[in-house]
Specification:
By secondary structure, the chain is of the alpha+beta class. It contains three helices and two strands, in the order αββαα. The chain has a domain of 78 residues.
């Protein structure tokens, strides 16, 4: 899972206390990778699902303005998501969670995409605090 690599690897490296700073480069403005849900009304007509052309190229971002405090707005890259609104994981939360951070007790056995995204954002926030 891409999200795990972007979050777990730096966390493990920081735990070794060898690196003072680790820079993570991600084209999205948020963590959680594929678990970031894009509502259906944001889909572009250029996306063919399933994709049948192996030479299609990279997905182009949809630029969306998001509030960044006060009256400022920042444009952030949003990519079409393979998720649908009511998607739940096909693995129980006990198998999906990291060894050092359990899913909240209130999460259902097969977490929703919202629950997984929130979990990964919280896990990433702890990585930022360590650095």
């Amino acid at each position: 899972m891409k999200s795990c690599v972007l979050i777990c690897s730096p966390r493990s490296l920081l735990a070794e206390k060898v690196f003072k700073t680790i820079n993570i480069i991600e084209q999205r403005s948020t963590v959680a990778g594929v678990w970031n849900y894009t509502p259906e009304n944001d889909n572009t007509a250029s996306m063919s699902i399933p994709q049948t052309d192996p030479h299609q190229g990279f997905d182009q971002p949809m630029w969306r303005e998001t509030p960044s405090g006060g009256h400022n707005h920042v444009k952030s890259a949003t990519f079409l998501s393979p998720l649908y609104e009511r998607l739940e994981a096909n693995l129980p939360k006990g198998l999906m969670q990291h060894s050092d951070k359990p899913f909240p007790e209130s999460s259902q056995l097969f977490p929703t995409h919202d629950s997984i995204t929130e979990y990964l954002e919280q896990y990433a926030a702890e990585v930022w605090l360590v650095s």
